[in-house]
């Protein structure tokens, strides 16, 4: 401490009630031994009205105030480590005349520390030494991440309106609403253009009132509808009802446009925080727009994490869980396996790619006898990239038990007809029916573990809350994971029936490549049953 800080400390120690009523002085410059580094000296050690010890750190200059949070953390830990105090018996207070360099790190510690931390601005008399009073400092609100969201809209090119003019008008309206974090994905195919608007997280709720008023003027909305909407969706609907030509879009549709229908990415236009290419690479932005990043799709996820990065690992697991929530046979074993991994794995990268559209008919329609089949069938791969060479991981797939089935009977067990399938798909409500279909076709979700030093994989299952492993027998199709994922046995055994089913689906389904929209045409009388 400087000479002036020592003088202020000694005077403040006699007036601790300026900081908090009930504080009792214990010692100035209290010594703490540190066998792992430099010893520490607490400016003022006090006790509060409950008997807890209070570390008071005093700073006067802006240059020294930067050290306050570091020293507080050190002294709180040493009181427990060197003096044996219980955590609940230790608090901390920072007192400083200057908070310019201190407020942000102080706020972080307030929200993330496991001890009580408060801060006060010290007001001095004209002599610059005598304490006159204090003002309590309020920590800044916890920082909220601003990531790209699932809230998207398409702006299509139409003959009577210029796409650039329309897009400029939408951008201007967003800026009017103080919404600055978003991305415009410019796509084209055969001379036709579109822009996909992807909103980032909207922190302020200021836009809710004007957009809510726009929707309330429409007969289909009420206060309850508006209250349930996220701010991002409310803004997009409001702008749409103001007359801007916004069309439905979502990450899976963007992925279908680019990867399934040949749309080319011409430009990624960035705004707000997303304009920093060092933090948001184009690859990261595209992955988010297509939904592959965590938490943006219920059908697929691609990501990497480490168990030691607790926040990252929790998000990683949450994203996997969101995709496989309706994939029985994967959920329990995956949860238990990941629990074990969390306790066992050192600082290794863990990567995953999981896909399940929860609609096996859709997979057959678009992937049967097609090179894309392997991309469209349910699959779960997870790799632990062990540095000792003993890599291992998970494989998830649909397992056929060998029972030959009548394909059309399974269809009837799941959907009354193609119309019911279409209706459930329209509301993303086909998962339960899809599981009935898989059960009728004797297909189940299964997970296997494969290790580099192990000749054959082990099948994973859950029994009474415990993870059970069973070695695959020699000669089993599951020795070759590619064969298992592709469901070769089931497909070959039912090839004639599947040919008939897929031909029936293709006859009734039309795809609009301009919008990646699937339309199912059927006659309620003629198509009251399957074929």
TrEMBL record:
Q: Which residues form a coiled coil?
A: none
Q: Which InterPro entries does the record associate with it?
A: NucS_C, tRNA_endonuc-like_dom_sf
One Pfam family per UniProt: NucS_C
Positions of the Endonuclease NucS C-terminal domain: 4-97
MF terms per GO, please? endonuclease activity; nucleic acid binding
Q: Please give the name of this protein.
A: Endonuclease NucS C-terminal domain-containing protein
Q: Which organism is it from?
A: Agreia pratensis
């Amino acid at each position: 401490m400087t000479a002036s800080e020592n003088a202020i400390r000694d005077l403040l120690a006699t007036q601790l009630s300026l900081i908090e009523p009930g504080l009792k002085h214990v010692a100035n410059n209290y010594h703490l031994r540190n066998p792992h580094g430099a010893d520490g000296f607490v400016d003022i050690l006090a006790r509060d009205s409950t008997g807890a010890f209070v570390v008071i750190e005093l700073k006067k200059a802006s240059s020294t105030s930067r050290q306050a949070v570091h020293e507080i953390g050190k002294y709180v830990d040493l009181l427990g480590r060197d003096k044996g105090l219980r955590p609940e018996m230790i608090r901390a207070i920072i007192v400083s005349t200057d908070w310019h360099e201190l407020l942000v790190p102080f706020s972080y510690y307030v929200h993330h520390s496991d001890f009580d931390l408060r801060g006060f601005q010290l007001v001095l008399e004209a002599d610059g030494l005598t304490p006159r009073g204090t003002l309590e400092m309020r920590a800044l609100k916890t920082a909220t991440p601003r990531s790209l969201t699932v809230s998207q809209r398409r702006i299509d090119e139409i003959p009577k309106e210029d796409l650039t003019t329309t897009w400029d008008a939408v951008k201007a309206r967003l800026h009017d609403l103080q919404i600055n974090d978003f991305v415009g994905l410019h796509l084209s195919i055969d001379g036709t253009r579109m822009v996909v608007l992807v909103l980032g997280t909207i922190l302020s709720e200021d836009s809710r009132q004007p957009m809510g008023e726009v929707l309330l003027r429409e007969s289909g909305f009420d206060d309850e509808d508006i209250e349930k909407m996220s701010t991002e969706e409310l803004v997009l609907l409001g702008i749409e009802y103001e007359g801007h030509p916004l069309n439905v879009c979502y990450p899976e549709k963007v992925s279908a446009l680019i990867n399934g229908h040949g749309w080319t990415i011409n430009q990624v236009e960035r705004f707000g925080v997303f304009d920093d290419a060092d933090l948001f690479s184009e690859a990261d932005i595209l992955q988010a727009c297509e939904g592959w990043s965590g938490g943006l799709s219920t059908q697929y996820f691609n990501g990497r994490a480490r168990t030691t990065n607790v926040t990252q690992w929790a998000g990683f697991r949450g994203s996997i869980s969101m995709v496989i929530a309706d994939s029985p046979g994967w959920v329990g074993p995956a949860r238990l396996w990941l629990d074990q991994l969390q306790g066992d794995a050192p600082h290794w990268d863990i990567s995953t790619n999981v896909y399940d559209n929860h609609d096996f008919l859709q997979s057959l329609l678009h992937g049967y006898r097609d090179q894309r089949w392997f991309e469209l069938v349910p699959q779960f791969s997870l790799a632990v990239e062990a540095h000792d060479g003993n890599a291992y991981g998970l494989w998830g797939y649909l397992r056929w038990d060998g029972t030959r089935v009548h394909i059309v009977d399974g269809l009837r067990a799941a959907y009354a007809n193609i119309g019911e399938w279409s209706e459930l798909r329209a509301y993303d409500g086909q998962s339960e029916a899809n599981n009935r279909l898989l059960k009728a076709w004797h297909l189940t979700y299964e997970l296997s573990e494969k290790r580099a030093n192990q000749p054959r994989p082990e099948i994973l299952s859950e029994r009474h809350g415990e993870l059970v492993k069973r070695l695959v027998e020699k000669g089993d199709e599951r020795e070759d994971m590619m064969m298992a994922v592709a469901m070769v046995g089931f497909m070959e055994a039912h090839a004639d029936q599947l040919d008939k089913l897929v031909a029936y689906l293709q006859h009734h389904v039309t795809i609009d490549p301009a919008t990646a929209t699937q339309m199912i045409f059927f006659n309620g009388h003629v198509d009251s049953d399957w074929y």
